[in-house]
């Protein structure tokens, strides 16, 4: 892709920083009333509204968080926005603006950054957020991309991590483990490609899980659904590192325990078949895999009627008193302590 000599390559030096920023951002519009001034001055200007503002930021580093040998730049741009919007939605807020900061080495031509910004533009359009600024600089090696996202929420609607109470139901959106298994497939194809560059991988049986890895979607729809159902989560977090560590975060912040039922964990059939193929335990993949960007939240028991049967939501457990600990209740009805990595027998002793 990047190395393709047939493609047009315009070196970044030819444009200069101002030309580059203007070129990349010329088609972005401002759609939110709170965006008073976007790109083009020393700072963006936002209207402070009747809402509370939420703000979150993430830094993605080439070779650490993404691998451009299988991550198309358009997808990278899209995903960099998604991981931030996911954090905004995890506060039960509406995402409104982003900034994008980039460091790129001169190995990237303008066309590569155009692709990256195509992905960013698509994310802004699909999720109705305004790009209001950023920063652009060079790097010695590789690419860094940092996105900051802002959102708005009514103070009473904010869902912190610390609001879960004993007997609250633990609920997750969508299904889990797909992004991790997609990564396994992509890593395997990369190794095959290294040995035989002419091989044409057939990824079609894996399209769902590969898409979960390369084009995750933040769950804006779930925040809207909960508002429609008039359910306010007592606590909420997004699943970036795996179900287990996110449950531990909610439990610890809230000062409660948790029982998670193995047989309730939602898994797509393609995740189950990929786990069989890779000889991995699907429960462990869901618990430790990460990057699913689903929402994990707790609701009061009395809200069960409002959420039950919704195809987007699965009740996977309930919260307990803190002294009962956080456990996985297996299919065989054994209780195993959860750890940040999954469960106890697989953990190394470094973490709690
Ligand atoms: P300054 O020198 O004051 O940092 P810049 O020249 O970096 O200003 O930025 C000029 C304008 O372009 C600012 O509004 C800034 O937010 C915006 N901008 C810079 N880089 C990016 C980028 N990568 N994406 C979006 N907007 C950017
Ligand atoms: Mg700058």
Automatic annotation (TrEMBL):
Domain PurM-like C-terminal as annotated: residue spans: 165-326
Q: Where does Mg(2+) 3 bind?
A: 42, 87, 238
Specify which residues bind Mg(2+) 5 according to the UniProt entry for this protein.
241
Q: Which chain regions cross the lipid bilayer?
A: none
Instruction: Report the residue ranges that make up the PurM-like N-terminal domain in this protein.
Output: 40-153
Family as reported in the entry's similarity comment: Belongs to the thiamine-monophosphate kinase family.
Q: What is this protein called?
A: Thiamine-monophosphate kinase
């Amino acid at each position: 892709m990047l190395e393709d000599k047939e493609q047009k390559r315009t070196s970044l030096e030819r444009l200069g920083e101002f030309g580059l920023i203007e070129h990349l951002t010329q088609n972005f519009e401002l759609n939110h009333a709170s965006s008073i001034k976007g790109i083009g001055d020393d700072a963006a200007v936002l209207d402070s509204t009747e809402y509370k503002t939420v703000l979150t930021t993430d830094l993605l580093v080439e070779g650490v968080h993404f691998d451009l040998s299988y991550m198309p730049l358009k997808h990278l741009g899209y995903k960099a926005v998604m991981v931030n919007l996911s954090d905004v939605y995890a506060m039960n807020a509406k995402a409104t603006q982003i900034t994008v900061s980039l460091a790129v080495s001169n190995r990237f031509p303008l066309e590569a950054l155009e692709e990256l910004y195509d992905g960013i533009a698509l994310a802004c359009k699909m999720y109705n957020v305004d790009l209001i600024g950023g920063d652009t600089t060079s790097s010695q090696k590789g690419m860094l991309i940092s996105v900051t996202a802002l959102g708005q929420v009514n103070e009473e609607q904010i869902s912190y991590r610390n609001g879960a109470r004993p007997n609250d139901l633990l609920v997750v959106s969508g299904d889990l483990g797909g992004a991790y298994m997609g990564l396994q497939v992509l890593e395997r194809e990369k190794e095959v490609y290294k040995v035989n560059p002419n091989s044409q991988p057939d990824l079609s049986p894996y399209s769902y899980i590969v898409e979960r890895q390369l084009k995750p979607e933040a769950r804006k729809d779930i925040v809207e659904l909960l508002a429609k159902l008039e359910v306010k989560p007592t606590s909420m977090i997004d699943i970036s590192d795996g179900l287990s560590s996110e449950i531990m975060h909610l439990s610890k912040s809230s000062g409660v325990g948790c029982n998670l039922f193995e047989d309730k964990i939602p898994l797509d059939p393609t995740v189950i078949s990929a786990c069989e193929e890779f000889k991995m335990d699907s429960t462990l993949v869901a618990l430790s895999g990460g990057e699913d960007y689903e929402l994990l939240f707790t609701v009061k028991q009395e809200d069960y009627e409002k959420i039950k049967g919704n195809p987007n939501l699965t009740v996977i457990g309930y919260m307990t008193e803190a002294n009962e600990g956080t456990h996985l209740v297996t299919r065989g009805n054994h209780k195993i302590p959860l750890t940040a990595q999954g469960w106890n027998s697989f953990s190394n002793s470094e973490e709690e």
